[in-house]
Amino acid sequence: MRAGRPRTLASLTFALALVAGSAGIASAEAPAPPETGAAKSDNITHLASAPMSGPLADGINTDIAFAGKLAYVGNYAGFAIYDIGDPAHPRLVSQVSCPGSQNDISVSNGLLFLSTDSSRSDNSCQSVAQSATIKESWEGIKIFDVKDPANPRYVAAVETHCGSHTHTLIPGKSKREIYIYNSSYNPNAAYPDCQPPNDLIDIIKVPVRHPEDAAVVASPVLFPDGGFPGSPTGRATSGCHDITAFPARDIAAAACMGDGILLDISKPERPKVLDRVQDAANFSFWHGATFNGDGTKVVFMDELGGGGGAECSAEVGPNKGATAVFDLDHKKFVFRSYFKIPRHQAAEENCVSHNGSLIPVRGRDIMVQAWYQGGFSVWDFTDSAQPREIGYFDRPPIQPADFGGYWSVYYYNGAIYGTESVKAFDVFRIDDPRTDPANRVRWKELNVQTQPASK
Question: Using an 8 Å Cβ cutoff, are 277 and 335 in contact?
Answer without folding.
Answer: yes
